[in-house]
Fold:
Amino acid sequence: LHSAAPPRLGMEVMAPAIINALNGSSVKLSCTFNSCYKVENKQFSLNWTYQSCSNCSEELFLQFRTKIMNKQLDRFGNRVEFTGNPAKYDVSFTLKNVQLEDEGTYNCYVLNPPDRHRGHGKISLKVLTEEPPKHDSTVAVIVGASVGGFLAVVILVLMVVKCVRRKKQQRLNTDDQKTEEEGKTDGEGNPDEGTK
Structure:
C-alpha cells in the first residue's frame, strides 16, 4: 500500500493572482517556487499554458525540458520571452506588446524531482486601455513593504523547517530499511558479536 504524501509536502509555487497590463506595453508574468531540492535540468520540467476563459481548454505555449522551448501559438507570435532562471527557482516570462485578446488565465506548472508533487500557479491577466489614475500611496507602500518583508521571513523559516523535517524523515526511512536488511542477514557483519 502506497500512501500519498500530503500536498503541503510538495513544492510551493508563488504567482500573483491578478496582473494588470497596459495595452501595447510589456509585462512580466512572475512565477517562482520553493523546493527542498536543487534544480537538475535533466529532471526539471515546466509548462506555461493559456486559457481565454475559465471553461476553455489550456493551450501550451512555453515549455522547459532540459532547455526552454517556445510553442509558438499564433495568438502570441514571437512576443513571449522566457525571463526566469530555473536554477534560482524562477520560471517567469515576459509578454511583449500586450494585446486586449491576451487577457485570460496563465497557468504555471513546475515539477522538480525528487519532489513528487507538481506545483501550480495561476495568474489572471487584465489588459487596460488606459493607465489607472495615480494617487499618493506612500503610507500604503511602506505598510505593504513591512508586512511583505515580515511574511517573506516567515515563509523562508517555514520552508527551512519543512526541508529539514523532510530530509530527516527520508533518513529515518532509509535507516528503517537498513535495520530490516541487517535483521535479515543475522549479523553477518561482525563475527565477534556472537562470542561476547
Observations:
- DSSP finds one helix and eleven strands in the chain.
- Residues 10 and 151 are 20 Å apart (CA to CA).
- Confidence is low (pLDDT under 50) at residues 1-8.
- The first strand starts at residue 12 and ends at 14.
